[in-house]
């Protein structure tokens, strides 16, 4: 089969791998959609080894030729011995939860395998991922894809859209809330789309005019270009001087993080989602004196993944619109060169 490797220095390689065979409790998935994620750009630009060194995971990589892609979605092609046929059968449409844990610690038992006490096996990073014709995973990593959803939609839920749903759950958001979303890339747009479907009024902020222009199609009622006006002042104006009750920060960087906090009202709740970098606040003025609640929200659980897909299916949310580019796997070099510009929306490989 074919599999794509991030070689660093903006190079990818489409290599030949042996077709995987499932062992006990495992499944082989025939890939139908494999999403491209913002975090892939780190591997694309710096290579897997350098990226993992930065993340402190270098000693855990299983080979120097790991297949990338951590947003996999497809159909079950083969099952290993011991898999309960009531759980999964050949032909089932599935998403892959790309973190694999020990299955016994408290985090694994609650579906948060990325937090596994013994360290998670991250597919597409430490172990083979979805940019391939086939992918082998434990059956415990599979989540059924609702019939109403496309494979591309499943790939979105497998990382970015699931992360958005996870942040909204952490904020315990409801139709009583107003929400400021900083960063209108695929995760921020998913936050907006899901929150709007929950009845929340959404304000969106970005520094790209193209992303600001697109935001209205994703349920953002007021989209603010932060290069043209001060987003905090704009959001205060839109909320009668009070601020939004919640904010989700998906842009990354010190400035938008501080702005997200300052866009909320007294008792505001803020979820930080974008990874890396710092946050600088005045503890008294920005947090304590305003009774604000600041949360770090890292991805989502397997249970949330299922709930997210079900919410999308039952509400008819058009997650497929997140994808501006679809590619074949043999176009991987072109696909990542285009994605590297970070000007459009999300890309996905379809099989
Ligand atoms: Zn991702
Ligand atoms: Zn565990």
TrEMBL record:
GO terms for molecular function: alcohol dehydrogenase (NAD+) activity. Its EC number is 1.1.1.1. Its cofactor is Zn(2+). InterPro entries: ADH-like_C (IPR013149), ADH-like_N (IPR013154), ADH_Zn_CS (IPR002328), ER (IPR020843), GroES-like_sf (IPR011032), NAD(P)-bd_dom_sf (IPR036291), Zn_alcohol_dh (IPR050129). Residues 8-349 form the Enoyl reductase (ER) domain. It is an enzyme of class 1 (oxidoreductase). CDD domains: THR_DH_like. Signal peptide: none annotated. SMART domains: PKS_ER (SM00829). Keywords: Metal-binding, Oxidoreductase, Zinc. SUPFAM superfamilies: GroES-like (SSF50129), NAD(P)-binding Rossmann-fold domains (SSF51735). Belongs to the zinc-containing alcohol dehydrogenase family. This is Alcohol dehydrogenase.
